[in-house]
Automatic annotation (TrEMBL):
InterPro entries: ADP-ribosylglycohydrolase (IPR050792), Ribosyl_crysJ1 (IPR005502), Ribosyl_crysJ1_sf (IPR036705). SUPFAM superfamilies: ADP-ribosylglycohydrolase. Belongs to the ADP-ribosylglycohydrolase family. It comes from the Bacteria. Keywords: Hydrolase. This is ADP-ribosylglycohydrolase family protein. Pfam families: ADP_ribosyl_GH.
């Protein structure tokens, strides 16, 4: 038996695990269930970080890019500065990333100020419960974990609301923050779902209780997994149904649909649970995160940069510097 990962291993595992899931799933986005396992039938064989669909092998997508922009803002301002995060998102969107969610793009380019753009989009479109706030949440979840359960869930809601006007997206992101906080502490987040659900807004509690229940399966989803409920539900299902990092993200990608995001969310939770060392080196070696909209043109993060970023986000508050 291997030793349990320590907190630093879990924090690095969360961020690297999310980025690896994103890059592993990207070539399979909008594919069918079973596409991944048809091509890569068993774990441990190699070649899975294959690229395709416009993505280089190991290239992370908008999920991880936006997460890094959130991290840069939190560290530069030593806390939550919502207009600054929104501005970074806008500069990223204007720098023509390879992929950007439809709703996110509209909110970031509709010309409205940071505190109105998502709200107005929701009023006009009435549907705004995509998984686009959940997919980028790992860095903020790392940063706010040390502030405790209610603080991290509230931070999740505030950052989600920058692009998503529907409270369903806020609550799903808040649940993810809390699940990651518990995992970093070495707890089993699945054992603590009742306590986590108790802090979800009452209007949204029942729907999340269903999607996170032990008997729920991704086949039970009533929406495409680009929506926040089945995305989070699928990640929790993948965590519950497997016992290694590799198997968890394989299961996530193999669901088809919004594979990069479902695997990014799964990879964060599984990376935190099993630790950085559990993530296959053949997946972390080609991993890279181009960062459109960065103050440093051409900036690309690799494994060592992501590990360093995770440790800075997870550092105790007194030691935090920009
Ligand atoms: Mg993506």
């Amino acid at each position: 038996m291997s030793l349990l990962p320590d907190r630093a291993q879990r924090a690095a595992g969360a961020l690297v695990g999310s980025a690896v899931g994103d890059a592993l799933g990207a070539p399979f986005e909008f594919g069918l269930a079973g596409d991944f396992s048809a091509r890569f039938p068993g774990p441990g064989r190699g070649g899975e970080m294959c690229g395709g669909g416009g993505w280089d092998a190991g290239e992370a997508t908008d999920d991880t890019q936006m997460a890094v922009h959130v991290a840069d803002s939190l560290l530069a301002h030593a806390g939550l500065d919502l207009p600054d995060i929104f501005g970074r998102f806008q500069r990223w969107a204007a720098a023509e990333p390879k992929d950007i969610g439809l709703q996110t793009e509209d909110v970031l380019t509709n010309g409205l100020p940071w505190d109105l753009a998502a709200q107005v989009h929701f009023q006009v479109n009435t549907r705004a419960a995509g998984n686009g706030s959940l997919m980028r949440a790992t860095t903020a979840a790392l940063y706010f974990a040390l502030d405790g359960r209610e603080a991290t869930m509230d931070a999740a809601r505030s950052i989600a609301a920058l692009t998503h006007g529907d409270r369903a997206a806020w609550e799903g992101t808040a649940i993810f923050h809390e699940l990651l906080r518990l995992t970093l502490e070495g707890a089993d987040p699945l054992d603590r779902l009742p306590q986590t659900l108790a802090l979800v807004h009452p209007d949204h509690r029942d729907r999340y209780a269903l999607a996170l229940a032990p008997y729920w399966h991704p086949d039970d989803a009533t929406e495409f997994n680009g929506a926040v409920w089945p995305c989070l539900g699928s990640a929790v299902w993948a965590l519950r149904a497997t016992s290694t990092y590799e198997d968890a993200v394989r299961a996530a990608v193999d669901l088809g649909g919004d594979t990069d995001t479902v695997a990014a969310v799964t990879g964060a939770l599984a990376g935190a649970r099993y630790g950085l060392a559990a993530i296959p080196a053949r997946w972390t070696a080609p991993l890279h995160v181009p960062l459109p909209g960065s103050a440093r043109p051409g900036r690309t993060l690799r494994l060592a940069d992501l590990v360093d970023l995770a440790h800075r986000l997870d550092a105790p508050r007194t030691a935090r510097t920009g």
